[in-house]
Amino acid sequence: MRNRRNYLFIIAALPPAIVACYIFLLGLNIPFWDQWDFLSQLLKIQDTGISFEQLISQHNEHRPFFPRIIWIGLAQLTQYNVNAELWINFFFALITLVFFIWQSKKIWSRLDVSPDIWTIPLIVLVVFNLGQWESWLIGFQTIMYLGMLSVVIGFFLLAKQASPLSFYGAIALGFVANYSMANGLFYWICGFFILLQFEDRALRLLRLVAWSIFSLISVTFFFHGWQTKSHLDFSYILTHLDSWGIWILNFLGAPIFTHWHIAWLFGVFGLIFYLVVPLKLSRGQRLIVSPYFAIAIFLILTAFAVSSGRFSEDKPSYSVISRYLTMTSWFWAALIALFPLVEFHYKRWIYIALTASLAALMVGGGWVGYENRYLPVLPAYESAKNNLKIKDTDLGRLYPDQNKTEILLKKLKDQKLSLYAE
């Protein structure tokens, strides 16, 4: 029995180990895309000092207040080694996963169900998968890793009706989620779903009122002076409802299979599963497993929000972009954690199919990241490292505004930051 546990632990530890090696080998210490925008802020802060307005300012649709604090701290500690951001993202993902598995084990025990031996390794493979290559290699994705840490842990804390401390911890994490990524706003909506499952009527009412007050404060402050950066065309969506529906399903199914011709089938399976499971549970059981459903609802709302600015019938591949898997992988982690609660035919074959698809995604995603992120950026990194002039095409791969990139690279060199501090 002990040997079996050791083998399972080794198997479960493989995906994080592979991702760690991937970051170590392919992480390049040079800013990339959105990181140049933060670098502008960082250099300004060094000249004028930190202001609350700078920290809370909008970036695209987000107000990444908490990620900016982390980035500034890392920059001070590492002379702005951007690879430190990759490792903090890895650390956040690992914390979230360990907490999720710990809570899932407690839930399975309370419901007196035994998970299949492959349940936990499969959850790990979903979360630590190189299908998310874009997020593993771009430090700016702290907004999603910290945001999802707050969402996942926060929902489990909120479901603990006997613990006032957990309730206020969930509120605090709501602010972190809200001020890490824009879809953190949906955290507050999903929180109502969990609180409505409480059996104690007085406690339910009291916490609903408190939740309403804090959510109103957070959301109101977020939208103060906020402007959308996306081109929203709801009339276009209404005239292409069938394609839009497929887009949503692709978004949800992408963590299992990232090709948009196939991903929607997994999206359909996931939604059907989430609709069927509650029918087999009592009210008390629904509260126990409510964090899983809250995670799913959060990501379904996220799919609708992202599609409102990204959907195009001509570009279905936008629905399966690698960086989105950092969020939607938790749709599937929660779903797999619910597997032990339901008996259905061919469960073994579903495990095999999911494992095979995720293993293929690990290999394919890793290769795509090497081809699309590492190799294109490497020439600019090596040229800058060797004090050679960077070609315009190579500069353009770092950031669209080449003039801005050249100016900021010179400042990095003058102050011996990032790759110039190596």
From TrEMBL:
The protein's organism comes out as Thiobaca trueperi
The signal peptide here is none
Q: Which domain of life is it from?
A: Bacteria
Record lineage? Bacteria, Pseudomonadati, Pseudomonadota, Gammaproteobacteria, Chromatiales
Which terms are listed as keywords in the entry?
Membrane, Transmembrane, Transmembrane helix
Q: What is this protein called?
A: Glucosyltransferase GtrII-like protein
Q: Where are the transmembrane segments?
A: 7-33, 86-103, 138-159, 171-196, 208-226, 258-277, 289-309, 321-342, 349-370
